Amino acid sequence: MKNSQFKQASLNKIIEDHQSGSAKIAFIALQALADYSVQSTLTDPAFYLRDLSDFALRLQQTRPSMAILANTIDTWRQAIGRSHKANLITLKRIALDKAHDLMAQSRLANEQIVHQVCDLIADDSVILTHSISSTIISCFTELAKKSISAIITESRPGNEGCLVAERLSHLGIETQFITDAQLGLFVPKADVVLVGVDSILADGSVVNKAGTYLTALVAYDTGTPFYVCAESTKQSRKHNVSIHLEEMGAAELNLADLPHITPRNIYFDVTPARLISGWINEYGMQTLINEPPKHV
Amino acid sequence: MKNSQFKQASLNKIIEDHQSGSAKIAFIALQALADYSVQSTLTDPAFYLRDLSDFALRLQQTRPSMAILANTIDTWRQAIGRSHKANLITLKRIALDKAHDLMAQSRLANEQIVHQVCDLIADDSVILTHSISSTIISCFTELAKKSISAIITESRPGNEGCLVAERLSHLGIETQFITDAQLGLFVPKADVVLVGVDSILADGSVVNKAGTYLTALVAYDTGTPFYVCAESTKQSRKHNVSIHLEEMGAAELNLADLPHITPRNIYFDVTPARLISGWINEYGMQTLINEPPKHV
Question: Which of A65, A94, A110, B183 is deepest in the core (most CB within 10 A)?
Fold first, then answer.
């Protein structure tokens, strides 16, 4: 495959992937960088480096709501940028190794999070989650050894809850599958809410699939603990006010074309820190900044 | 059509109607009583009365979450019960007249509610509603004369938001159509939330389509006024703890059959009075009992 074809195919794969969580997307991007660093046909080290770095930037820009993508690719670009005087063979080796290294770090962070979560969750707990997260799926894989049960949401319009259902069914976990609108009925039936997130903002608020804020509101209103499970690379320097929340195609809502009616499809919402009981990352349980309640 | 066939067809029509709000369902039930009171082939007044009263009870029991159905049919049964000494012709006349009378009262109450709502809503307001309500559709029909715009929810799994979209499109109201999961993003963009409800319980909490509690939580959290629009016959003597929330067929969720996975489809949730800014009925704006916030 030509350089430009490979790059475009990799970008399209991420742009069209509306079901994977941000850790998985970062993995796919790093794998694309690893593959491209080897198979790029450019032979001049400066051109090779510039082309690779430009590809990394474009990968980063595919999903602006995902801090892990920004952070991981920044780290990767800095590493290869520091090697700008190396020869082509060395450059290829550094680019490939750094991508693999970052993937391994992410895998390790996730294993550590799973360990923390398993220590936290008691036998026979009912765990509710919203949307899909590779971190949460890893937690369930380990938690399946305890006699826990699950409540999961459909997560319209991508319906990634159906994928979660398949995974939990395979793991033999007794699971109730609900529409997003039933969150108010089912969060109170859970012992704990666990969600993965796309980004943790500078003020401690979290960006995740639309509906996460609703889940957190019910958890807060009913006294149900609400934990965010996310590796530290998901921390963003951005503030709530400057965050761009991606909107996807309206066709996903399957609404008939009607005059005056505009279907909206914003994929992410922001959950304020004051509603979050804690952030579990690879270093343990972190407390987010807890602003005072707004309207009380 | 035979008596038993007519009755079963009427009951099925209501049982299978998952899209109409409770005022519409009460209307359909009253119309069935009006029609049946005329066409019943029973000739003995005592048998006629008992059969009609039994049919009314069965209509009432089709939708236990709907106070208006219970209240309206109670009133109708009391009226015909008081006439048990009348002859057949008189009985038929009373049964028919009382059904028509109750339908007219409901229509008038709705007109008065629309009038109250129109006084409340300023020009250029953005109004958000969840699910479908004939009262709210009547409000929009009148509000279309002001330059208001709307935000409406899909309302899974019945998707009655699609019906609302058709009505608002026809009225020429600029409308944003969102998934239920996007409520946290769009309630803050509204000036006011208006919902119809199925029942107002003794403690001031309201029973309505699942997702209403989520809508009210966001409204409360973001300081957006949240009004319930419902005729006074929707007041129930029941308390939150004794209310039965109907669950419909899981097939509506369209989830593939998977071991260990149970799709749940509870149609209604309960919104506590403390989250509700006011109840607009035919007499004006009522204040619901405001319990203190629970977890602050």
Answer: B183
B124, B191, B198, B257: which is the annotated catalytic residue?
A: B198
* CA closest to A166 among chain B residues: B258
Q: Give the contacts of A93 (CB within 8 A, at least 6 positions apart).
A: none
| Nearest-by-Cβ selection for B264 from A155, A177, A265 | A177
Chain B CB contacts of A269 below 8 Å: 182, 184-185
Pull the structure tokens for residue A238.
């951005």
User: Chain B partners of A261 at a C-beta cutoff of 8 Å?
Assistant: 165, 168-169, 175, 177
Give the model confidence (pLDDT) of A191-233 as tens digits.
Answer: 999 999 999 999 999 999 999 999 999 999 999 999 999 999 9
Does residue B198 carry a catalytic annotation?
Answer: yes
**More confident call, B135 vs B287:** B135
The burial class, CB within 10 Å (0-12 / 13-18 / 19+), for B19 is middle
Fold classification of B3-108 is: Four Helix Bundle (Hemerythrin (Met), subunit A) (1.20.120)
Contact between B224 and B190 under an 8 Å Cβ cutoff? The reply is: yes
Considering the segment(s) B110-286 as one domain, its CATH architecture is 3-Layer(aba) Sandwich (3.40)
Hey, do B3-108 and B110-286 end up sharing a CATH topology, with the first three levels equal?
Answer: no
Instruction: Convert the pLDDT of each residue in A263-296 to its tens digit.
Output: 999 999 999 999 999 999 999 999 886 555 554 4
Indicate the residue of B169, B222, B293 with minimum beta-carbon distance to A258. B169
**Domain A114-286 belongs in CATH node 1.25.40.20:** no
Q: Where are the domains of chain A?
A: 3-108, 114-286
